[in-house]
Design goal:
The complex is a heterodimer. By secondary structure, chain A is mainly β. Chain A contains no helices and nine strands. Chain A is 0% helix and 66% strand. Chain B has one domain (29-98). In chain B, strands 1-2 form a two-stranded antiparallel ribbon. Chain B is elongated. Classes of the chains: A mainly beta, B mainly alpha. Chains A and B meet through β1, β2 and β9 of A and α1 and β1 of B.
């Protein structure tokens, strides 16, 4: 975060990122027993927008693809609060739209390891609960505990 | 260049750690948790991929045959467990509808 160029006037500062992630996925497909397994590999890209007059607050948009099994495409909208230049927390809505739908919310944290003036490595643990969608075999929510890593660039 | 190499190493180690944690936590590797874990024609049912029931409109029957077609769709599943009491109950329920 805070990798973007200085704004010329009032407006938004923008960071872009690209990363991969996985973790564990839990849910009850029926029978009353919560099962866990490795989550599908996620490939994620997106941007963070923040007002140049309130740089601690940001709005993040992510698109992701799960690239195992039948795969999926999805997105995330998140509100980010940056405690320092290299550490922030966020909460938001997440979901997949194809081949099945799945929607929920989650929280996470982002740690930035800067290298160079406008680039950094991000590490991002997150926790999501997804209770709605056609991808669920019944009404029990799906749980994602993910860990993502990638590159963040000031745009 | 050195920082780029360091970044690549950190990404690789992070991804490997996530995969290892995931595999270690995976107790039921052969089961499904989501419908998209299964082939297109299947759905996840109690942790196993089973053939989706045939939609009533695709059975070709009319009127009272709808219940019978539902039974046919269920019993044609390759993964249907004949000993499953719930499946038997489902067949019984849908079958009774066909007589109407």
């Amino acid at each position: 975060m805070f990798l973007a160029n200085e704004a010329r006037a009032e407006g938004y500062l923008m960071d872009g990122d690209f990363g991969i992630g996985s973790g564990i996925e839990g849910g009850d497909p029926g029978g009353g027993k919560l099962g866990w397994r490795r989550a599908r590999l996620h490939v994620t890209t997106g941007i963070d927008l923040r007002d140049d007059e309130a740089e601690s607050d940001a709005l993040g948009f992510r698109a992701f693809a799960e690239i195992e099994k039948r795969g999926s495409l999805g997105g995330e909208v998140r509100y980010e609060r940056w405690m320092t230049h290299s550490f922030g927390v966020y909460g938001g809505l997440i979901g997949t739209v194809t081949p099945e739908t799945l929607f929920g919310g989650g929280v996470g944290a982002t740690i930035i390891i800067p290298f160079g003036k406008r680039a950094g490595l991000f590490l991002e643990p997150s926790f999501h609960v997804l209770p709605v969608g056609s991808d669920l075999p019944n009404n029990n929510p799906l749980i994602w505990i993910l860990f993502s890593a990638g590159i963040k660039l000031g745009l | 260049m050195l920082s780029l190499q360091r970044a690549c190493i950190v990404i690789f180690v992070s991804a490997a750690t996530a995969v290892l944690i995931g595999n270690a936590a995976c107790a039921d590797g052969g089961t499904c948790l989501r419908n998209s874990d299964c082939p297109t024609d299947d759905e996840c049912n109690r942790g196993k991929c089973k053939l989706k029931p045939v939609p009533l409109g695709d059975a070709g029957g009319t009127g009272g045959s709808s219940g019978a077609s539902a039974v046919t769709g269920g019993s044609s599943s390759t993964d249907l467990d004949a000993g499953d009491a719930s499946d038997a109950a489902l067949a019984s329920d849908t079958g009774s509808g066909g007589s109407a």
